[in-house]
Amino acid sequence: MSKTKSIKNIKEANEEMLRYFNALYSEHHDELQSAKSRLFEINVKLDELVKTKNIYSLNADYRRNLFSPLNTEGNENEKELEIRHEIENLTEERNILEDKIENENRNIKSIETRLSKLNLSKASLQNLQDELGIYITKSSEEKKPILEEDDNEYVESSDTLRQHGKNILMMSTFDKTYNSTVMDKRIRSEIASNSHKLEMIRDVIRTDPNRAKVTVDEVLSNSKNIMLVIDDQLKRNYYYFDDKKSIKSMVEDFVLDAQDKHPLIVFDTEFTNLNIQPPYIRMLMLYKLLDIFFDNIYKHSKASHVRISVSEIGGKIDVFINDNGIGIPENHDSKSPWYSGIKRAKEIIYLLDGNIMLTNEDGTTVRFRFDIN
Predict the structure, then answer these.
(1) How far apart are CA 310 and CA 204, in angstroms?
(2) How confident is the model at residue 63, as a pLDDT?
(3) Can you say whether the dihedral through the CA atoms of 227, 228, 234, 237 is positive or negative?
(4) Pick from 363, 359, 169: which is nearest to 265 by CA?
(5) Cα gap 202→120, rounded to integer Å
(6) 313-369, pLDDT tens digit by residue?
(7) Cα separations (Å) of 365 from 40, 69, 361?
(8) pTM: predicted TM-score of the whole model, two decimal places
(9) Cβ count within 10 A of residue 35
(10) Distance separating alpha carbons of residues 354 and 343, to the nearest angstrom
């Protein structure tokens, strides 16, 4: 069997396994989201029931006085008993869902490991194919090399383009899911909790003003926390980004903010020919890329010294970042999750039609470039 035929057969088998595990990933991911949604509903309902049960208990206690006969039955009233049974049933369902979520997370992690290996295998096969100079085409098409040289750059294959598209869609979905989860768990649920507390205040404000005051304080504290969460989400979505600055002013402010937040790191800067005003989206993407790479330095590099150089060269924004940290693992492409910061940065630069280079000499060096307009 020829080398071309062998590589073609291996690539087809690899693609078939990728399709299978991608479908399996989607299936388990949907199951996980469904279980999480139901678990959230149960937790909200349990919270409502516990508070309602407490109110009934409180009202029952309040109706008793010093001259009432002692209650020797020790039984709950009918409504409390009904609520208790419902709480028990929901608690049992919650335990089952928590076990299911744990199992689905394990399944998804296992599938992600396999997908990572298959994608690595796919890239290795492509490299081998390029090294051997083997070109695989459909019989009805003109024979063309998968990669064509053009001004020392390469025209990407349709498989590579599809992979970029898939990565970008997955990251977009991840961001939407993350934002929705924050709104659901940290905003909506807190607002629901405040509503229940306000209902309780209405019931006890005359009978137990001290308890009502404590509950009001809790509502105010929760409201402040909700505002902090909303503000954090706005910052994550770059709502406060000022695109009226020049690139130089924007980068200078970015570094000053980094120095304030991380005083133990020494920052060296160099800015050249930056009194320019690119379109909004390119200014925002530059800021987002700096945010990603600096966040990676703070979280993983253990660096004490960072150099950053930003310049305008031939109509392109050119950025150089070097830190003296531990460096990026050689297998970061295969080991890091698909939504990691570096992979996210690569897809942003891809969309900007730019290029990026990462090296591990003297720490980590990142250099990327894209058109101003």
Answers:
(1) 62
(2) 43
(3) negative
(4) 363
(5) 61
(6) 888 899 999 999 988 877 777 777 877 889 999 999 999 989 999 888 778 999 999
(7) 43, 81, 7
(8) 0.54
(9) 19
(10) 14
